[in-house]
Design a protein that fits this description.
Bound molecules: 3-hydroxybutanoyl-coenzyme A
Helix content: 40-55%
Number of strands: 8
CATH topology of the largest domain: Rossmann fold
Order of helices and strands: EHEHHEEHEHEEHEHHHHHH
Number of helices: 12
Length: about 290
């Protein structure tokens, strides 16, 4: 099995920056790419904060933290293109944008570089189809937020994905300290097919007046041993992301009402309440953020 020592992560948002620091902490060199310099600076700030917390908790020395940060290169175009054994795309969840990025990945990286996407619901087969003869190197590598903490990577193979690509991806997941589990290329894969309807149902319960958000979350947290309730989790994921994944399930699975995004969820998204990232979603975080 190939020893992965260099990867590129395209997109420096919440997921991309989390993938980058997780790989660097596992001893892998990383090129973190984003078109926005500001986004790269935010990613670097997040990396410094995460490493600083590990030093404070005596999980690593300052020298180890410095060495980990030094493993990450930040670039608005490409870096480590020749060395990268994996290019993991973690950009905006938009199929046209992803396909454009994949076309660039085929041009930029070597003929044996594995082309992975961290999509949460876009068809891997459709992305693979768009890259023609490179399709056998395309695979889904779906990480979970917050990436440094969550143990799973859901690995999604499509018909075109080669056995070697799958094996290498499972090996990279393990090398990054995760438990990789493979699934097939269906709308929402496994994780979001099961999780999102539950979150959507929590919005229905709120909308129908079954209970207020705190009570819904409290019941699910204490009654089902969830680390956080479904509505607070929706805020962490992003309400727009939740709505969009429900739309993928709604459009892809063919039931007229089963996967329709709840009106309450849609209403909040349309009013700009997107969750943690806008300081207000189901819950209002603005006061806490101002006093933090
Ligand atoms: N980055 C790095 N580390 C983080 C972090 C972040 N963003 N957020 C929390 N952590 C770390 C903390 O530093 C702490 O680490 P330590 O114990 O080593 O100091 C540890 O996680 C626990 O954090 P806290 O003490 O602050 O808070 P909690 O104990 O409440 O845990 C949580 C926070 C880890 C977010 C926990 O509530 C949880 O696991 N929630 C569920 C998250 C979940 O389900 N994620 C999946 C979402 S679905 C998804 O991503 C797929 C997509 O396609 C939609």
């Amino acid at each position: 099995m190939l020893d992965v020592n260099t990867i590129t992560v395209i997109g420096a948002g919440t997921m991309g920056s989390g993938i980058a620091i997780t790989a660097a902490m596992a001893g892998i060199d990383v090129c973190q790419v984003d078109v926005s310099q500001e986004q790269l600076e935010q990613a670097r700030g997040y990396h410094e904060k995460t490493l600083g917390r590990n030093v404070a908790k005596e999980r690593m020395t300052q020298a180890q933290a410095d060495a980990t940060l030094a493993r990450i290169g930040y670039a608005t175009e490409t870096c480590k293109a020749a060395e990268s054994q994996f290019a993991i795309e973690a950009a905006t969840e938009n199929e046209a944008i992803k396909k454009k990025i994949f076309a660039g990945m085929v041009e930029t990286y070597s003929n044996d570089c594995i082309l992975a996407t961290n999509t949460s619901s876009i068809s891997i087969g459709s992305i693979a189809k768009s890259v023609g003869p490179a399709a056998d190197r395309v695979i889904g590598m779906h990480f979970f937020n917050p990436v440094p903490v969550m143990k799973l990577v859901e690995v999604i193979k499509c018909e075109a994905t080669s056995r070697e690509t799958l094996d290498q991806t499972m090996a990279l997941g393990k090398a990054m300290g995760k438990t990789p589990i493979a699934a097939n290329d269906h709308p929402g894969f496994v994780s979001n097919r099961v999780l999102m309807p539950m979150i959507n149902e929590a919005f229905h319960a709120w909308n129908d007046g079954v209970a207020d958000p705190e009570s819904i979350d409290g019941i699910m947290k204490l009654g089902c041993a969830f680390p956080m309730g479904p509505l607070r989790l929706a805020d962490l994921i992003g309400l727009d992301v939740c709505r969009d994944i429900m739309l993928v399930l709604h459009n892809g699975l063919g039931h007229p009402d089963k996967y329709k995004p709840c009106d309450k969820l849609v209403e909040l998204v349309e009013s700009g309440r997107l969750g943690n990232k806008t300081g207000w979603g189901v819950y209002d975080y603005r006061e806490a953020a101002a006093t933090a």
